[in-house]
């Protein structure tokens, strides 16, 4: 059985849901782009002789976090 929109309040809730969904998709897409950019920058630093520990220290994370990030291709 299909429930139909019965009031303006319901219509407003659906409109708000659509807006939130749209924003979530937009943020997800941007997060993917930034993740790829972050990976390229870390690659450049490693290529220039910095260690994973150096990068981790500057970012305030563990070396293992950098290692996992690089292994996952993030």
Automatic annotation (TrEMBL):
Keywords: Transcription, Transcription regulation
Organism: Streptacidiphilus fuscans
InterPro entries, per database record: Fimbrial_Adhesin_Reg, RNA_pol_sigma_r3/r4-like, TrfB
Pfam hit, one: KORA
This protein's name: Helix-turn-helix domain-containing protein
Source domain of life: Bacteria
SUPFAM superfamilies: Sigma3 and sigma4 domains of RNA polymerase sigma factors (SSF88659)
Membrane-spanning intervals of the chain: none
Span of domain TrfB transcriptional repressor protein: 29-70
Keyword check for Transcription: yes
The keyword Transmembrane is annotated on this UniProt entry: no
């Amino acid at each position: 059985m299909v429930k139909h929109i019965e009031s303006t309040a319901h219509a407003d809730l659906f409109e708000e849901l659509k807006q939130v969904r749209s924003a979530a998709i937009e943020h997800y897409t941007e997060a993917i782009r930034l993740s790829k950019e972050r990976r390229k920058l870390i690659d450049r630093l490693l290529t220039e002789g910095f260690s994973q520990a150096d990068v981790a220290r500057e970012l305030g994370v563990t070396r293992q976090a950098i290692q996992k990030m690089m292994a996952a291709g993030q």
